[in-house]
Amino acid sequence: MITLKNLSAEEYMLPGNAACPGCASVASLRIALKVLGPRTIVTIPACCSSVIQGYYPKSPARVPFLNTAFAATAASASGILAALEIKGREGINVLGWAGDGGTADIGIQALSGAAERNENFIYICYDNEAYMNTGTQGSSATPRGAVTTTTVTGKKEKKKNVPEIMIAHEIPYVATACAAYPLDFAEKIRKALSMKGLKYIHLLSPCPPGWRFPAEKTVEIGKLAVSTGAWILYEWSEGKYTLTGLSKGMTKKSSRKPLKEYLTAQGRFSRLSEEETKALQEDVDTQWDRFNKKLVESGTAPTG
Amino acid sequence: MILTGNYAVSYGVKVARAEVVAAYPITPQTQIIEKLAELIAKGDLRAKYIRVESEHSAMAACIAAEACGARAFTATSSHGLAYMSELVFWAGMGRFPVTMAVVNRTLAPPWSIWNEHTDLLAQRDAGWVIMMCSSAQEAYDTAIQAFRIAEDERLLQPVMYGLDAFSLSHTAENVDLLDQSVVDGFLPKLDPAKLPVYMDPDNPITFGNLLGPDAMMEFRHLTKEAFDRAPAVIEQVAQEFSKISGRPQTGLFDDYRCSDAEVALVAIGASSGDAMDAADNLRDRGVRAGVIRLKAIRPFPGREVRERIGGVKAIAVVDRDYSYGFGGIIGGELSSCLKGGVHRYVAGLGGRDITIGDFEGMMDDALSKAERGEDAKEVWWGLKELA
User: Fold this and answer.
1) Is there a single domain that holds both residue B159 and residue B306?
2) What is the pLDDT of residue A304?
3) Structural domain harbouring B323
4) Residue B380: strand pairing partners
5) In chain B, whose CA is at the least distance from the CA of A46?
6) Closest chain A residue to B192 measured between Cα atoms?
7) B276/B163 same-domain check
């Protein structure tokens, strides 16, 4: 179990990078590398994290980064693995680190292919719920109601459920995480490292400029995503769903904060009418009703 | 051994000890990757086969494998190559010495599986060495030499080579195979220390992060300089391969009876043998005809070809490809290297046969126009009324 005490004090992300103030993704990559350690190769497609690295000839990290094309993260990771295996280079972790556009949209084909082949690497999607690097265009991971520059009156469609798509591939491990809970995220990476095959972690990554909240509120917004039940922290392995962290106490509607608290804290939801806010609250309640059934089927529903 | 052009590539890749093969099937390339999958499964080739879900992923995986020190190969054709194109550029601009066989096929619509060279030529600005094979033997020989060329320290750029759909890919010929030990002596193991990009946790680097306008031109100029050295690399590799194989090798191009020619025809690919037969027929009729068969298209041997045929009365160029709004691609490229016009013949699009008689006709046509002082013009050879 990873705790603040045993989380590595080593830093593999170097100080000074081109991230926006309050960026959750770069803070989470820092945590991820602490768990993965120095024997890691990271491959990254076009996304915020490709810009965060800064300009050549500077390097952002103390581990090798292989940048690749937008759609190619999982294929690139597969090529790294194949080479490491055939060259007998053992004990090197491979991480695919991509945004929601590079995962839920343009990269899903390569990801699905790698999952079907059960390639032995960890894929982390840091989900800031839009194309933030290009200036907040809507993605399939943008939630219903959110304003982006291409969903100007608020997105009408629901967020694509990529973790469930990955579960359908029956890979060894799928988990969700939230950047506001770094130890929960770190523990999930630690677990993933202990398994062979493709491990998928979907990290909610609050984005101050894209979600339109003050940069110092990143953690607060992330916590609200979980405490209102909008984002569920869980893991799935061998057919079983298990809640983690704060979400363990969220199965009952009465234990969840009203979604409104999460929505009104962000400018991207400022256009919502009372009616639309109510509809989104119903979405969250339905999401939990369905999830609770999965917990019952898994035999992991909290008692009492 | 009797092999199709496709299988000749597979056996060439095997004896070259490719270590990672990432590929996606497309007609008429499938035999290449089926044979490699079989050789790997049987343990005859020690390599990893990645059964990717697309050509885009195939090249991404090959690039990543090269970045981790493994010799990588893929094969594709037409739509697959077009789909892969983003990563084709990534390999070229990133200087990853991947090699790739491209079975030349027409791009749809309408659907067609037959021969055309536009697929290969549309990738000509991607920073790859591009070659065209003319026989199954040459496909085998090129598959081996491609790795030597790509991995040469003076070059370090990827290499793709074309095989005409069916007329070469699926036509069986006798192919002389080389012993493993002979090829091992010719093609040393890939040394990671020589790679421009090597992913090593003990010496971590970042590949491909942002580069501003202040240095991009200088990066591109490094690649340009590598290509300036490419002709010498290709010629040297061909000479050394001639020695180990006992078969004289073409480096940049073949010159067939051009030294005293009054008409020279320039062609690429498998039908160039028919063009040479046509030149013989013309000579039987008293017309001094010759053929230049380009093997290398990038680097384009314009200067070298000009030295051979710059002074002939008429030059005919055959294009089994087309750049709409411009013309045949090889004809256009050659025109830029020669004084005076070339007679440009667009032929064989969509896999239509180009016969020995067609080649004779083109040379006759070019020579008679030149003798009449007519300007060189583009001709769509054998064009019919649509039914």
Assistant:
1) no
2) 58
3) 253-380
4) B346
5) B209
6) A87
7) no
CB distance from B87 to chain A under 8 Å?
Answer: yes
How far apart are the C-alpha atoms of A43 and B152, rounded to whole Å? Answer: 26
User: Do B238 and B260 reside in the same domain of the chain?
Assistant: no
A77 interfacial to chain B (CB closer than 8 Å): yes
Q: What string of DSSP letters covers A106-160?
A: TTHHHHHHHHHTT-SSEEEEEE-SSBTTTT-B--TTSPTT--BTTBTT---SPPP
- Is the domain of B78 the same as that of B134? yes
Q: Is the peptide bond before A57 cis (omega within 30 degrees of 0)?
A: yes
Do B258 and B238 share a domain, yes or no?
A: no
Token output for B106: 């027409």
Q: Of B193, B210, B245, which closes a domain?
A: B245
- Going by C-beta distance under 8 Å and a sequence separation of 6 or more, which residues neighbour residue B111? none
pLDDT tens readout for residues A194-248: 999 999 999 999 999 999 999 999 999 999 999 999 999 999 999 999 999 999 9
**Residue B345 resides in a domain:** yes
Q: Are residues B213 and B290 in the same domain?
A: no
Give pLDDT tens digits for A20-38.
999 999 999 999 999 999 9
Quote the pLDDT of residue B24: 98
Of A55, A67, A82, the CB nearest to B207: A67
d(CA A99, CA B17): 36
**Which residue, among A32, A67, A89, has the nearest Cα to B64 in the 3D structure?**
A67
Q: Do B52 and A78 touch (CB under 8 A)?
A: yes
Q: Which residue ranges make up each domain of chain A?
A: 24-298
pLDDT-based confidence at residue B340 (cuts at 50, 70, 90): confident
Q: What is the mean pLDDT of residues B20-44?
A: 98
> Which is it for strands A65-67 and B206-207: parallel, antiparallel or unpaired?
parallel
d(CA A199, CA A178): 17
How many domains does one find in chain B? 2
Last residue of a domain, one of B200, B220, B245: B245
The pLDDT score that the predictor gives to residue A141 is 98
> Given this structure, which CATH class describes domain A24-298?
alpha beta
What ipTM does the predicted assembly reach? 0.97
Residues of B in contact with A74 (CB under 8 A): 57
